[in-house]
Design goal:
This protein is of the alpha/beta class and 480 residues long. 32% of the residues lie in helices and 16% in strands.
């Protein structure tokens, strides 16, 4: 909040419908490909005020309906417009404990901003950028505020996995008065937020700050504790936990199943990004986890993970990075900003290509990739036009590293150790769609372990639903 004796930001006098959407400053492409620093630099107070002024404060809250965690979007934007920046962050945190992270990686263009009425004839309000601004301002000002917490209920919950679903569920349960312990299998909390998303999109310090906020709410965190290996669900119940939330995500990489895929120099995107992000292999030899530094890298896939891998390879010094996708640009599932950034940085988009064989040299290392041209046929079950091979169109390109980013399956460690948990045909956890209760009493689940690979904000939405269900179960309001 700006003090009364401080100069006010210059008022915006242009009619709000004529104010263009504000563009967030960024590192220039030729600069950012030389570092792992964050690309987007965030709004200044002046830009945030100008963008917030564009919001017409609709009576019908369609933007809120598009938000999986139900943030009071007009409410926090109004506070920004009134220059109550810290209060805006507090308003967001009434529904979302992880705003700095969400403002950076959530696909607002397909959710809240998609519903914004300004988008009918022009550009929607930059809701995500404003959310990021408010959260960053609160943190930078040292004004993070812990809400008053209710009296402890005496009930305890184990949260397995510290990804976005687990963190959200843990925070909401703590605010309801329950004791919460998060069990994380890796040495850092954050799940895909730290091992999957590169530093240049989501700095690790941001994730750490969001996790620290949950700790201040009373959430306990135990790392290096892969449940399913060191303990079973029954062990957790026997040790005193009254309920469990499973948020172990989709950490099992999928592969192409083509000849040559076992050659040296072939990575899953999971391994490649984990080595770079969590193990700091990009700082080798200062950090002792090596990562291949190839001259010509091919990345297979068209989603955000493929973009992250391709852009990481460029920053590791690759001379050429080919992003190979079997459909056209229109069918790519990646966020449009990520695609644009990849193109600006020099990733070569090879559309309507599909790999059929990985080629190797006498030493067992990748030396090339045989591909085939594709054309688009009728739509498939996803609604996208089905790629069809063009007969006789095979060709080869020289590469010395291949990164496969075609999706992930559910993390199998806990599922294999718990045969009582019912699964779907796809191998994900079967849950009640309303409550997210599993087939085991007192056990709930959400995020990618239920949906398959999806978005961060969808996992967070599941975390909120599960927290409400667990709270009702612990208060004996439901039997599950």
């Amino acid at each position: 909040m700006v003090a009364d004796d401080e100069p006010k930001l210059q008022e915006v006098r242009v009619p709000r419908q004529k104010i263009p959407r504000q563009i967030m400053p960024e590192q220039a492409p030729e600069v950012r490909i030389t570092n792992f620093n964050e690309v987007a630099l965030g709004f200044s107070p002046e830009l945030a005020l100008k963008e917030a002024t564009r919001c017409i404060q609709c009576k019908k809250l369609v933007c809120v309906e598009g938000c999986p965690v139900g943030i009071d979007i007009p409410g926090f934007i109004k506070l920004i417009r009134e220059e109550h920046f810290i209060e805006a962050a507090h308003k967001i945190k009434e529904a979302n404990s992880l705003p700095a992270m969400c403002g950076r990686v959530c696909p607002q263009e397909d959710q809240c901003e998609k519903e914004c009425l300004l988008g009918i004839k022009g550009q929607p309000v930059a809701i995500g950028a404003l959310e990021r601004f408010a959260a960053d301002y609160e943190r930078d000002q040292g004004a993070v505020e812990i809400p008053s917490l209710p009296e402890k209920t005496g009930r305890s919950v184990a949260v397995i996995g510290s990804g976005p679903g687990g963190l959200t569920c843990a925070g909401d349960l703590a605010k309801l008065g329950h004791e919460v312990t998060i069990f994380e299998g890796l040495h850092k909390a954050g799940g895909v937020l730290v091992y999957g998303i590169p530093e240049f999109r989501l700095p690790k310090a941001i994730v750490e700050a969001e996790v620290d906020y949950l700790k201040q709410l009373g959430v306990k965190l135990e790392v290096n504790k892969p449940i399913g290996r060191i303990a079973s669900l029954n062990d957790l119940f026997n040790s005193g936990f009254d309920a469990v939330f499973i948020g172990t995500g989709a950490g099992l990489p999928l592969f192409l199943h083509i000849p040559g895929e076992n050659l040296n120099g072939v990575y899953s995107a999971n391994e490649y990004l984990t080595r770079s992000n969590l193990m700091k292999a990009y700082l080798f030899p200062q950090h002792d986890t090596p990562i291949i530094r190839a001259r010509r890298v091919a990345v297979i896939g068209g989603g955000n993970i493929a973009m992250d891998a391709a852009r990481t390879a460029l920053r590791l010094g690759a001379e050429a990075v080919y992003l190979i996708y079997r459909r056209s640009r229109d069918e790519m599932p990646a966020r449009r900003d990520e695609v644009l950034h990849a193109q600006e940085e020099g990733v070569k988009f090879m559309l309507l290509w599909n790999p059929v064989e990985v080629l190797g040299n006498a030493d067992g290392w990748v030396s090339g990739l045989r591909c085939i041209h594709m054309e688009l046929g009728e739509p498939d079950e996803s609604g996208r036009r089905r790629p069809v091979p063009v007969k006789g169109s095979e060709f080869e390109i020289p590469i010395d590293a291949l990164i496969v980013a075609i999706g992930n399956g559910p993390n199998p460690i806990l599922l294999r150790a718990t045969p009582d948990l019912a699964l779907t045909e796809e191998g994900t956890l079967r849950v009640n769609p309303e409550t997210l209760a599993t087939s085991m009493k007192g056990v709930y689940a959400g995020g990618d372990i239920v949906t398959g690979a999806a978005t961060v904000i969808q996992a967070m939405g599941h975390g909120k639903i599960a927290a409400r269900s667990i709270d009702s179960f612990l208060r004996n309001e439901t039997t599950q």
